[in-house]
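Late entry, adenosine monophosphate complex.
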Amino acid sequence: MLALGIEGTAHTAGVGIVDETCRVLANVYDMVRPEKGGIHPREAANHHAEVVVPLIRKAADLAGIDLADLDLVAFSQGPGLGPCLRTVATAARALALTLDRPIVGVNHCVAHLEIGRGVTAAKDPVLLYVSGGNTQVIAFARGRYRVFGETLDIGVGNMLDKFARECGLSFPGGPILEKLARGGTALQALPYSVKGMDVAFSGMLTAALALRKHGASLEDLAFSIQEVAFAMLTEVTERAMAHLENAEVLLGGGVARNQRLQSMVGRMAADRGATMFVPPGDLCIDNGAMIAWTGLQMFRGGVRMTIPETVVDQRYRTDEVPVTWR
Ligand code: AMP
Ligand code: MG
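Prediction complete; structure with ligand written out below:
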């Protein structure tokens, strides 16, 4: 069975093709990079509209298949930016109708977890999902993926990107700050904001920007933001693992590529006799392969959608999805 997945919840348009063993035959993407300022939903949607067809062709070429070989079309149904979601949903509907193949809308957050289970040895992990727009600790319980903790304001990636932008660095800021952080030495005092299993980052952003104004170096601030933010994330992840008596932790989302985050979570896992799993970087960030793979499993789990049921949902919650495939 071959599934094609289209991702487009936010800044990245991606197309992936996978088979029923989670072999990734193609995974291509194109990210909108605003010259200045943040991501504008309409501009990002226009970008996706321009690149989605070339990406579909490129994915098919890389996979060495004809589009007629596909058995299923999947797309990111939410959560995300409305104009972006509608653009990729339209592309997916057009493709499915043209090929006369079934279509399945996929929850983006669930897809981050499923691709990790698909390409690593993790079986029933606690997922620390850390991306631009989302920050959640997710695990499977009683037929659903449940959110055990999440950000109360902005995603951790968004915090990194905003700090970087205000300091004149380019987008995405996370990888740039990771490099700068290696040169940092003095830990600056930043708010450590954990409430139960939830976290908050906007106070840290404000505090870091104020310290920058007062002359703290970019290296020290990048270092301090990473140390404090990632310690918060590690703490809530550990709390979920302890609560669930779960010995597997999986990382997902673009921030999961960060080596310092990986080493902190890895250390926590090792200390509790647990194992950490990290998918390859291209499958951590927003990507079409994770949508294809999740759609394929949903389809095998009996999920069928009519075109009217493929309406997008900007606030599609992780725990709204009945998990019929495991
Ligand atoms: P996603 O939304 O999952 O595609 O991930 C994009 C986010 O990941 C952006 O906020 C990036 O700044 C962030 N990101 C990517 N690579 C890194 C890295 N090495 N360290 C920290 N953040 C990163
Ligand atoms: Mg994501």
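The longest strand covers residues 12-19. Will revisit in the morning.
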